[in-house]
């Protein structure tokens, strides 16, 4: 059995009056090193909240989350972010900056402000360009991200997360809104990071077929609770049940 990198024990987050319950409700799960996990669920189920809680961006009101056996409460955000990279829903790139500048933004948590006063160190530039090259974006390094296609932007966001050399990459709906080919390129990139670089991947997906094709394991959230944790086959019948639960 692989070692656990992220563990949630009885996690609850803020109680929402509009929902008459906490956003996340008694969530228990483990993410093991080297896994490729699909996080699934209907809109509003709590998927983004769960991913954000893995990097300390959402406060937990009850229970504990540990990353590498270190409780979230006893560490700092920059330390977590060095271990756990995140691709935000919609990419979260700065549209007016070039691809390479966006990738360099991933170093802001590591470099002291004075170190970037006159630009980033040369080795950071080299690394950013190398990552863009690896992700097939060499020709677009100096292009404003607003003029890149959705799939290219998503790969820039991946490079920005990778410049921290994270052990775990969390991706929130990385292929939503992309055409089939661009979605395949992004998913293949995540698969390569997982198989060749050993990076643990947890990604929110909506397509059950893609989840079954790429992920070894699925976590399904419904109304803030984990209702399925297991292999990706049988997902269709799991979702049929969730659909009827949520009505
Ligand atoms: N900061 C917040 N303030 C109020 N409600 C929130 C906040 N974050 C999330 N929610 C609510 O919590 C629920 C789960 O949200 P989210 O985690 O974004 O779901 P998902 O990503 O599965 O669509 C939704 O009903 C959403 O409206
Ligand atoms: Mg979401």
From TrEMBL:
PANTHER family, per database record: AMINO ACID IMPORT ATP-BINDING PROTEIN, PHOSPHONATES IMPORT ATP-BINDING PROTEIN PHNC
Boundaries of every ABC transporter domain copy: 6-244
Protein name, as recorded: Phosphonates import ATP-binding protein PhnC
Highest taxon of source: Bacteria
Keywords: ATP-binding, Cell membrane, Membrane, Nucleotide-binding, Phosphonate transport, Translocase, Transport
GO MF, one example: ATP hydrolysis activity
SMART domains (alphabetical): AAA (SM00382)
GO CC terms, sorted: membrane
């Amino acid at each position: 059995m692989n070692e656990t990198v992220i563990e949630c024990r009885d996690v609850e987050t803020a109680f929402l009056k509009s929902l008459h319950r906490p956003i996340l409700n008694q969530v228990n799960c483990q993410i093991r090193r080297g896994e490729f996990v699909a996080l699934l669920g209907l809109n509003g189920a709590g998927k983004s909240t769960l991913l954000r809680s893995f990097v300390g961006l959402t406060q937990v009101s009850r229970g504990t989350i540990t990353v590498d056996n270190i409780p979230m409460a006893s560490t700092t955000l920059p330390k977590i972010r060095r271990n756990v990279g995140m691709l935000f829903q919609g990419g979260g790139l700065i549209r007016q900056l070039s691809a390479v500048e966006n990738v360099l933004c991933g170093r802001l948590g590591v470099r002291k402000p004075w170190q970037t006063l006159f630009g980033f160190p040369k080795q950071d530039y080299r690394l950013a360009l190398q990552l863009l090259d690896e992700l097939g974006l060499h020709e677009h390094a100096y292009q404003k991200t607003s003029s890149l296609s959705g799939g290219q932007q998503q790969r820039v966001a991946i490079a920005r997360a990778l410049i921290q050399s994270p052990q775990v990459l969390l991706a929130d709906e990385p292929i939503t809104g992309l055409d089939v080919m661009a979605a395949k390129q992004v998913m293949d990139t995540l698969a390569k990071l997982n198989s060749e670089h050993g990076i643990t991947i947890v990604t929110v997906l909506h397509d059950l077929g893609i989840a079954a094709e790429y992920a070894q394991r699925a976590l399904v959230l419904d109304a803030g609770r984990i209702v399925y944790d297991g292999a990706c086959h049988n997902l269709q019948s799991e979702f049929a049940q969730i659909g009827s639960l949520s009505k």
